[in-house]
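Need tokens for this chain, all 156 residues.
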Amino acid sequence: WYQRRVREAVVSTQSTGILKELDVMHSAMSDLHKRYDRAREVINNMKKREDTMEEKIREFAEDLKNSEDNCRFISKSCDDQLEAANARIEQAKLEFEKEKVMMEATIKRLEIDSKSWHSKFLDKESSEKELIAICDSLMGVKEQEMAESGEQESSS
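Here are the structure tokens for all 156 residues:
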């Protein structure tokens, strides 16, 4: 009986030690499980943030591509407009040069016409002076004839 009691006491002591160890192990497992849950939660949150950031990166990349496309379109449009404006300027220069040449030709023709008219005027003036001289001379002769015929009539 005593031995049995001792054995029971030893078993009870061992059992109590084992129960304490089991309790400690249970507590450690519980802490480990809590840490695991927290780590899994942190990892899930990081994964969600990573997914969100990747989505934002895709959106930014798409916005950047759209902006680049828009810049290329605007640049092409500006180049086209500049090219059209330069073509209009070139056309205006050609028309100006053509009109300038035509005006210079017109001025030259008018100068020649003016010189021709001046020359004709001088010729006519000279002819007119000659005609006046002829008329004066004829009138002088006629007056002289009349004066001579008036003297003959007075003498007769």
